[in-house]
């Protein structure tokens, strides 16, 4: 038995620790019976450098599709290209409004303890804008992740890397040919830049980027194909919001709207979040609520971990990897 696995099985006996271990065991069980794992990611996990562990999960075929906020999609590349220019602020809880303004004046945008330089991706911004322009000019729209993959295919792009390539989960996903769903592209730095490129006339229209409903259709086609092949699909959720609620709804959409009543429910569900159980909050909704929406079944293995995903997710990943 490996070090982390042994540690978790020895010490993670109760409360959130027990739930964490059970979720990790459930992930292994799903894969052992030929299942696939769909991972969703909200929050600032790419800025938290989740790629160090998530990229290995992707490379080792433990994750098979991803839905994330467009911010997480782009921030993995921001870290890849600009990590050395980031500024750490360990005392972030003690910052006054004046200290925050000082960071702003220095050209930094703060995400908890990490300040991202305002000019992130400037080395390659012209290249990705050219990709958008080409897509609009040729009426060849693409999903946001496809532009990222095209960017990573640019000659000499690796010369701009400031962290090891193996620490980028987007690069790992590209190499494995994974689909990355990113609903709400406009709610991101690159989404804002794309809009500015259209307004300025440098990109002739908004049609260069494919819409969210097209992403839902692509997911529905993949989920249906997996179902027909008898492949159970698990759902591992980091945080909540659109990154999770968008893809998990593919099951009730198939069953209720398309009337594909033989569609299987998600075969596993786990969530890491720091939201307490609450009224009206998606992040704070317990897994059982999803049964009433036609997303999970009564017997679906379900786990709710109330903790910091930056701590818990790498532990679960390590357990699944057998580390």
TrEMBL record:
Pfam families per UniProt: DS (PF01916)
InterPro entries associated with the record: Deoxyhypusine_synthase, Deoxyhypusine_synthase_sf, DHS-like_NAD/FAD-binding_dom
GO cellular-component term (any): cytoplasm
Keywords assigned: NAD
Secretion signal, residue range per the UniProt entry: none
Gene Ontology molecular-function annotations: deoxyhypusine synthase activity
Protein family: Belongs to the deoxyhypusine synthase family.
PANTHER family attached to this UniProt entry: DEOXYHYPUSINE SYNTHASE (PTHR11703:SF0)
Protein name: Deoxyhypusine synthase family protein
Taxon lineage: Bacteria, Pseudomonadati, Thermodesulfobacteriota, Desulfovibrionia, Desulfovibrionales
């Amino acid at each position: 038995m490996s070090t982390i696995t042994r540690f978790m099985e020895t010490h993670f006996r109760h409360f959130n620790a027990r739930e964490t271990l059970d979720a990790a065991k459930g992930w292994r069980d799903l894969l052992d019976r030929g299942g696939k794992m769909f991972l969703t990611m909200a929050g600032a996990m790419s800025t938290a450098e989740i790629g160090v562990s998530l990229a290995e999960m992707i490379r080792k075929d433990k994750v098979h599709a991803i839905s994330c906020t467009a911010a997480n999609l782009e921030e993995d590349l921001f870290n890849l290209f600009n990590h050395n220019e980031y500024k750490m602020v360990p005392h972030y809880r003690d910052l006054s409004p004046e200290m925050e303004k000082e960071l702003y004046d220095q050209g930094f945008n703060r995400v908890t303890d990490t300040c991202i330089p305002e000019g992130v991706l400037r080395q390659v911004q012209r290249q990705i804008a050219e990709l958008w322009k080409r897509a609009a000019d040729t009426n060849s729209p693409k999903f946001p992740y496809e532009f990222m993959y095209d960017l990573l295919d640019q000659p000499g792009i690796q010369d701009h890397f400031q962290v090891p390539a193996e620490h980028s989960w987007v690069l790992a996903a590209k190499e494995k040919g994974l689909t990355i769903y990113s609903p709400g592209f406009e709610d991101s730095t690159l989404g804002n830049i794309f809009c500015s490129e259209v307004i300025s006339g440098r990109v002739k229209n908004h049609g260069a980027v494919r819409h969210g409903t097209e992403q839902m259709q692509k997911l529905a086609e993949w989920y249906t194909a997996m179902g027909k092949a008898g492949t159970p699909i698990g759902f591992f959720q980091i945080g909540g919001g659109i990154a999770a609620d968008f893809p998990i709804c593919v099951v009730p959409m198939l069953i209720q709207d398309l009337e594909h009543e033989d569609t299987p429910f998600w075969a596993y569900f786990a969530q890491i979040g720091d939201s307490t159980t609450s009224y009206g909050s998606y992040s704070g909704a317990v897994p059982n609520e999803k049964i009433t929406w036609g997303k999970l079944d009564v017997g679906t293995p379900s786990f709710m971990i109330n903790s910091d995903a930056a701590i818990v997710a790498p532990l679960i990943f390590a357990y699944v990897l057998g580390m």
